[in-house]
């Protein structure tokens, strides 16, 4: 007999079918039955079910949480609660996707990972990361989430869930106290639940009914197929709806960025203050244009392809020209060219590279600098001299980063302050030389600057140290370029090793790619490097989605198994980006190289390239890494989602000029842009982000425009974009202009100069320009001033003035004033109109104003006419 059950969820105003919960954690909220027998202590940690001091757990509801303490020793990172979840996983079967959620509150900042260690047929396999987060806010409840698929072939004989919580550092870094390196923490509300479509929403939170039109689907990570996953849309319900495909193109918060662009950079589409922004508030127009272009590409499902060149002299021809010259390549060059400022036998060897970079930019390309900076203590002691001193595992000579960044040289090792200060001077000198070359050969060109990469690995001298050390080093170098050298054309790229992120053995911990993230105010692009065949990387997209930055794959290459034989399929990388890393804006392949592999598998004596055939003698072995040297290179460049150099187009005109040319129109002009298909002029009356409308578009050979139909003294804001087919660029900075007044238009028409002085009298007739305008006389012809007379009103005589004045529209006011004291006044606007104005048929009328005090009733009376501009 078969039975079936269904759980109904009431959502909004309808009832829809939802899947049942499948949380495999027992007593997940610790509110009943303590923590045993489901949980037990791992690695001698102390566990205690304790009442939370404020009477509630993380965000309301419940009284108890699990307190974990006593986490010391060599395995302190894994000390804490552990539980057997074999039966829960087995009940659901292999190949299921799980979303994990857990609330933690740490006593000190640390990397937090929820791990599952499993064994198949009694053979232990590398652990899997079910959820992770770097928690930098001690004393605050933080939810750590993640999504993972667990598959096995055979019998799942054991599966344990546990947490890894630690501060990371290298053995010769300053060591935090045990309570900081392995901080105590609180744990609450942990769940591991089914999530069939892997969108981080549980099956029970989505619908299995495809007929209903309101709630998202449990089997489709993007239920409305608008390019924004359901979990992101559900996170911002006021701005997005996972069942509305039209909202992706909207700009809900009116900040100038569409909803899908905000998804691309992990910003809040419902908050105008949360928007994609460069870390440098003084970033140049060119830098902002590249920044916008990268976001725009990823939001439209396209990605720049790049190729690294380690040595221009040996690598450029085979890996860059060679790529363009491949059969079927169509002459396409990679959009991004990667260059290395350092040389193989000297700290810097960038002069030739800078010239190559300038030529590449002139041809339409984008430059990224991958700077593997030499150990400056080695340089300062004059002991460098071979490739082992380019950040390899052996290059740890006298490293004291805290002493390097300190202005007094005082650090945490036995180094003398003088040694640290010499290393600091060497490092800053290399920065100065590089900055000088960039200013000389690439003035103002936006550059993707990528120093100190793969910092979560242990092979570079800056790698796998404390967060304080790395962020201080990053800040020092960045500040040298941005502040000291006033270089605001750089986009700063922070990229870690993706392979190091994933535990490689049953007892490995790996290192999170975001652990060393310097902060939103110091970084523009984030990413990870992958040297594998894109079958099992971690979810880099979701990890970096916690930071509002552009996502990239700044470096990739083949795994050892394929790099030895040119067996990498270049299509793997674009397929992986398209299916699992859609927010990636660009991806850059490393260059091939040749060296002697080391057969002893000793990480101290090689650079991580152990021979795949250790029984054979050491031989020079070529590594097939570059795109051109692996399979389907031409197919990669021809892929519709891949942008090559000939397609790169992101620069708006360098500037825009706007001036009034009349009382009803403006004249605009701008420098031409090469290769575009036209320009789009946008206009606003306020300059606010959501107030811009298209005014007009022009052809690519037209670099000027005249706009009319405005009213006098209208202030408008203008900006312009370059068009490249259906794409556009960042607009120029907004400028404003104001149309002429009626008076300025009259001066231009009669005197040929709209700015002629108001009080000049070119014809010397006693009437200045302002009066000539108000009386509608010509400023270059002798004209008659107003005349005085006596008006008889009801038998009494009054002093009067007769004059012509303009009929509206006019921007002058005419006031007749009177006084009895010519010397001391006061002058008062007492005179009143006499009779009916006479229309002269030329835009003027003749009027008479008379005094209100009869002549002869006072010793004397005086009238005058005053004309003013508003």
Short description:
With 870 residues, this protein is an alpha+beta fold. 19% of the residues lie in helices and 27% in strands.
What does this structure look like?
- The chain has 18 helices and 39 strands.
- It has an 8-stranded parallel beta barrel, surrounded by 4 helices.
- The protein is an alpha+beta fold and 870 residues long.
- 19% of the residues lie in helices and 27% in strands.
Explain the layout of strands and helices.
Elements: E1 7-11, E2 14-18, E3 40-42, E4 46-51, E5 64-69, E6 80-84, H1 86-92, E7 96-106, E8 110-120, E9 123-124, E10 128-135, E11 142-150, E12 156-166, H2 178-181, E13 185-194, H3 230-235, H4 259-264, H5 285-299, E14 303-309, H6 312-324, E15 336-339, H7 351-362, E16 366-371, H8 376-380, H9 401-405, H10 417-441, E17 447-451, H11 467-484, E18 490-497, H12 498-501, E19 525-531, H13 540-544, E20 550-557, H14 560-563, H15 571-580, E21 584-589, E22 593-596, E23 620-623, H16 633-638, E24 642-643, E25 657-660, E26 666-669, E27 678-684, E28 693-698, E29 704-707, E30 715-724, E31 727-728, E32 735-738, H17 742-751, H18 769-775, E33 787-793, E34 796-806, E35 813-819, E36 832-833, E37 838-839, E38 844-850, E39 862-868
Parallel strand pairs: 14-15, 14-21, 14-24, 15-16, 16-17, 17-18, 18-19, 19-20, 20-21
Antiparallel strand pairs: 1-2, 3-6, 4-5, 5-13, 6-12, 7-11, 7-13, 8-9, 8-10, 8-12, 22-23, 25-26, 26-29, 27-28, 27-30, 30-31, 30-32, 33-34, 34-38, 35-39, 36-38, 37-38
């Amino acid at each position: 007999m078969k039975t079936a059950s269904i759980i109904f969820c009431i959502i909004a105003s309808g009832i829809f079918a939802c899947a049942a919960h499948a949380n495999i954690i027992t007593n997940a909220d610790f509110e009943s039955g303590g923590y045993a027998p489901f949980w037990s202590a791992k690695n001698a940690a102390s566990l205690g079910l304790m009442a939370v001091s404020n009477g509630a757990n993380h965000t309301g509801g419940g009284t108890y949480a699990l307190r974990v303490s006593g986490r010391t020793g060599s395995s302190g990172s894994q000390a804490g609660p552990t539980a057997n979840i074999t039966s829960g996983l087995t009940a659901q079967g292999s190949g299921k996707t799980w979303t994990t959620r857990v609330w933690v509150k740490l006593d000190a900042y640390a990397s937090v990972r929820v791990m599952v260690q499993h064994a198949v047929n009694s053979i232990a396999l590398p652990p899997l990361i079910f959820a992770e987060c770097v928690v930098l806010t001690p004393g605050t409840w933080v939810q750590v989430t993640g999504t993972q698929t667990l598959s096995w072939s055979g019998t799942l004989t054991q599966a344990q869930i546990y947490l890894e919580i630690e501060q990371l550092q290298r053995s010769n870094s300053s060591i935090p106290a045990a309570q900081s390196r392995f901080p105590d923490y609180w744990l609450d509300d942990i769940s591991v639940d089914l999530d069939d479509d892997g969108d981080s929403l549980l099956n029970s939170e989505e619908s299995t009914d495809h007929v209903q039109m309101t709630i998202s689907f449990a089997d489709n990570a993007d239920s409305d197929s608008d390019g924004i996953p359901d979990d992101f849309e559900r996170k911002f319900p006021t701005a997005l709806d996972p069942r509305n495909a039209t909202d992706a193109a909207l700009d809900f918060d009116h900040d100038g960025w569409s909803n899908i662009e905000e998804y691309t950079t992990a910003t809040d589409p419902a908050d105008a203050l949360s928007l994609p922004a460069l870390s440098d508030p003084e970033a140049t127009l060119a830098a902002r244009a590249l920044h916008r272009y990268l976001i725009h590409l990823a939001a439209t499902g396209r990605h720049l392809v790049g190729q690294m060149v380690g040595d221009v002299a040996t690598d450029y021809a085979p890996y860059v020209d060679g790529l363009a010259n491949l059969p079927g390549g169509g002459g396409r060059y990679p959009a991004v060219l990667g260059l290395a400022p350092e040389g193989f036998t000297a700290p810097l060897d960038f002069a030739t590279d800078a010239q190559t970079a300038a030529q590449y930019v002139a041809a339409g390309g984008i430059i990224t600098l991958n700077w593997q900076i030499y150990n400056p203590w080695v340089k300062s002691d004059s002991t460098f001299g071979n490739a082992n001193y380019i950040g390899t595992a052996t290059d740890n000579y006298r490293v004291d980063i805290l002493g390097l960044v300190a202005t007094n040289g005082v650090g945490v090792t036995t180094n003398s302050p003088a040694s640290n200060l010499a290393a600091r001077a060497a490092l800053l000198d290399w920065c100065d030389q590089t900055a000088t070359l960039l200013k000389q050969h690439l003035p103002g060109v936006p550059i993707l600057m990528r120093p100190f990469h793969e910092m979560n690995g242990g092979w570079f001298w800056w790698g796998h140290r404390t967060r304080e050390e790395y962020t201080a080093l990053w800040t020092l170098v960045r500040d040298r370029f941005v502040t000291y050298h006033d270089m605001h054309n750089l986009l700063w790229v922070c990229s870690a090793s993706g392979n190091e992120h994933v535990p490689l053995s049953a007892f490995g911990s790996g290192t999170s790619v975001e652990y060393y993230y310097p902060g939103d105010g110091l970084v523009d692009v984030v990413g990870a490097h992958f040297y594998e065949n894109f079958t099992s990387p971690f979810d880099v997209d979701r990890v970096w989605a916690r930071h509002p930055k552009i996502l990239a794959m700044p470096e990739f290459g083949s795994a050892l198994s394929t790099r030895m034989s040119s067996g990498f399929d270049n299509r793997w990388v674009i397929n992986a980006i398209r299916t699992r890393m859609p927010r990636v804006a660009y991806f850059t392949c490393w260059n091939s190289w040749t060296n002697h592999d080391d057969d002893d598998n000793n990480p101290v004596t090689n650079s991580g390239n152990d021979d795949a055939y250790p029984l054979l003698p050491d031989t020079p072995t070529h590594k097939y890494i570059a795109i051109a040297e692996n399979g389907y290179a031409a197919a990669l460049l021809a892929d519709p989602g891949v942008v090559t150099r000939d397609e790169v187009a992101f620069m708006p005109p360098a500037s825009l000029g706007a001036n009034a040319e009349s009382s009803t129109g403006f004249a605009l002009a701008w420098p031409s842009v090469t290769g575009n298909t036209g320009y789009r002029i946008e206009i606003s009356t306020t300059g606010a982000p959501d107030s811009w409308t298209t005014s007009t578009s022009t052809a690519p050979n037209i670099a000027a425009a005249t706009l009319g139909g405005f009213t006098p003294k209208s202030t408008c804001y203008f900006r312009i974009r370059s068009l490249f087919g259906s794409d556009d660029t960042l607009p120029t900075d907004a400028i404003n202009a104001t149309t002429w007044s009626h008076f300025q238009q009259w001066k231009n028409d009669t005197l040929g100069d709209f700015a002629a002085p108001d009080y000049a009298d070119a014809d010397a007739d006693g009437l200045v320009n302002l009066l000539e305008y108000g009386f509608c006389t010509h400023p270059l012809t002798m004209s008659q001033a107003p005349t005085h007379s006596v008006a008889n009103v009801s038998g009494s005589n009054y002093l009067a003035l007769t004059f012509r004045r303009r009929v509206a529209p006019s921007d002058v006011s005419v006031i007749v004033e009177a006084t009895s004291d010519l010397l001391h006044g006061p002058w008062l606007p007492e005179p009143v109109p006499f009779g009916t104005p006479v229309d002269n048929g030329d835009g003027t009328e003749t009027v008479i104003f008379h005094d209100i005090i009869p002549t002869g009733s006072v010793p004397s009376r005086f009238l005058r006419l005053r004309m003013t501009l508003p």
